[in-house]
Amino acid sequence: MKKYYFVTIFICLASLSIYATEFKLGIGGGTIFALETSTNTIKDSSVEQIRYWESFGYFLFFDATYVEANLNIFRGFTHDKTDTTDIHGNNMFLDISILVKYPFHLGRFEIFPLLGICYRLVLFNVLEKDKDDTPFSNNLFGFQGGVGTDFSLTEKLYLRGEFLIDAWIRNNRDKELFNENFIINNIGFMIKIGLGYSF
User: Fold this and answer.
1) pLDDT tens digits, one per residue of 140-174
2) What is the C-alpha separation between 103 and 23, in angstroms, rounded?
3) CATH number of the structural domain spanning residue 180
């Protein structure tokens, strides 16, 4: 019976702590820079390929106290390198992500760790050697984690900065092209700087 009392007290205290935190809704946007890389061995060979992406773009975010939803669109450049080749290309991505967060208040600053999931639509991904690539075979699902901070400019306006590390699960196209069987293929990071408005 005492166990149930302790559980009840814990639930009540947790509920009070949530209600004690000011609930916030907001919207905003800004610029984004991303860098990602992967290393694989080409199918039926011993040739190692290093691929990396450099991307720039813009993002929109929809904000609540413990949840953040993002819509990122960015244009970038692809480099596929082996011992004998260096192939360049260009691409465009659309990311949709949902992240949970827990804010800590330090004066005009709010700092929050972030963790969540992301789905990437590859709008196009064309290499020099290709006339066209099959865009939707490249779509990715992944995980993101990092840290963000808000700085209050006024009662309603705030600056937002985020640093995120992302890990993308190997898709069907990767399985067709490369020997590796690792679940995670691409690893990268992104830096986001924007302006938000709270309601």
Assistant:
1) 889 999 999 999 999 999 999 999 999 888 776 66
2) 11
3) 2.40.160.20
Split into its structural domains, the chain has a count of: 1
**Could you report the per-residue pLDDT of 88-128, keeping only the tens digit for each?**
888 898 999 999 999 999 999 999 999 999 999 888 877 76
148 within some domain: yes
Q: Which residues of 136-172 are buried (b: 16+ CB within 10 A; e: fewer)?
A: eebebebebebebbbebeeeeebbbebebebbbebbe
3-state secondary structure of 119: strand
Q: Is residue 15 part of a domain?
A: no
* pLDDT, tens only, 25-57: 999 999 999 988 877 766 666 667 777 788 999
């963790």: which residue's tokens? 115
Domain that holds residue 108: 24-198
In a domain, 17, yes or no: no
| Residue 103 CB partners (closer than 8 Å, separation 6+) | 21, 65, 66, 110, 111, 112
Question: pTM (2 decimals)?
Answer: 0.78
* Residue 106 located in a structural domain: yes
Cβ count within 10 A of residue 57: 19
